[in-house]
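Notes from hallway chat w/ T.B., transcribed later so I don't forget. T.B. wanted the structure written out for a chain they're using in a teaching module, and asked if we could keep both sequence and structure tokens in one place. Agreed to drop them here.
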Amino acid sequence: MDPGADMEAQVILAEENLYLGQNRLLELIARGALLHPILTQLALLIEAQQQGLYCSVLLLDGDGKTIRCGAGPNLPAQYMQALDGFEIGPNAGSCGSAMFRKQTVIVSDIETDPLWQPYKALLTPYGFRACWSRPIMLDNGTVLGTFAMYYREVRSPAPDDLALLDVATHIASIAIDRAQREAELELHRVHLRELVDQRTRELHAAKERAEDAVRALTGTNLELAEALAALKLAQDELVRSKKLIALNSIVVGIAHELNTPIGNCMTMASTLGEQTEALATRYRAQGQTLRKSELEQFIADTQQANTVMLRNLGRAAGLIGSFKQIAVNPAGDDRRRFKLHHVAGEALLALRSLDHATVDIRTDIAPDLELDSYPVALGQVLANLLANCLIHAFDGRQGGIIQIAAQPLGAAGALLTVTDNGAGIDARILDRVFDPFFTTKLGGCCGLGLNITHNIVTGLLGGRITCRSEAGNGATFSIELPLSAPG
């Protein structure tokens, strides 16, 4: 066998394994996997490219000066733990100096290099002699951490070694930046809810004080009018506060939901661009020729990236379609008089696409109950409530029953109820079922169905919707509707 040909085959195989490993890591990042397993897999991937190589990923704390442990699967655990809490500086070993200087730091001999003198005792017991570290940075110059390569012999980097550092720091920057953005979004969500809860409590207290003032009034009509005005002001402020809650929740929810598919597309597009540039470089270096295996690998990577981007763009388009339904548009539905039982029957027909063979749907609606309203919007309300029952109430359960009932509510209204005997709703989340983007069933549900239903009922139809439930004892959605819609 030709030693040169054998060596070339090994190089090609190593390059292919590196590309496959990068693609697997980028897929994990796109799926939102936890940061520590991603960094661990990254370190193992780079270590697999050379004999005697040990890798670590260190993170820079939010204070901009403290080192935090990221991953070092094959480095001594005691050594990695000892690094946690050190401060970066111009002479703080390889990693601390690289983060401080924002440039690659090459230490070929730890025993003699002055950067390692204060920390040499940490590493000497484990026999490491060389450490090269490169800062993990964003395009704007923000330092996220370092990726380091350790060896047990005195050694300086070759061009291939520096290329491996390029690959490692690029993937690490994508993973760390993605994790930090998700953490910031969650922090913003929690802080926003705390502010809104505090403001809501203050408004409720003001409303109660105004009501107490009304009850305590024994003076003139002027005093009564002033108290009633204060009560009305507090109520109006409470309504505005609730609208602000909904608006802020929607804005944060849209950013969160669209961040994942758009981020996935950006990641795959960036990777595809790098692979294209790498292929072009090899094409020029090899005298404008390419091996068949290189071209086939590039085609496979391109097809995979195209599939991922199309899937995520489709998901983003679907989410945008759902967002459009949040705002109720009266112009999109013709108002007319109709029998309520006809609309209910049409809503049941619309559910044929869902598998509800084991669920018995019953109706008890007076045939003469007539409304002057918007039948398409009311049909969407019923369809959303029925779909919600089938997806959540009877998930994995057999022999369920859904009851749709309607009866007159006084001289000018009707009460419509949708009741099931399914799993019920835990009391801790019952007051959140109409919140946008709130769902207990991840993976396919974006948490907008009941929020859209609430908007239609309280907006276009001029009614009121409530939910009553106990965990394990089913749920009842009650809708109070005027016989004649407002406007």
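Follow-up for T.B.: Confidence is low (pLDDT under 50) at residues 325-331. Might be a good example for the class.
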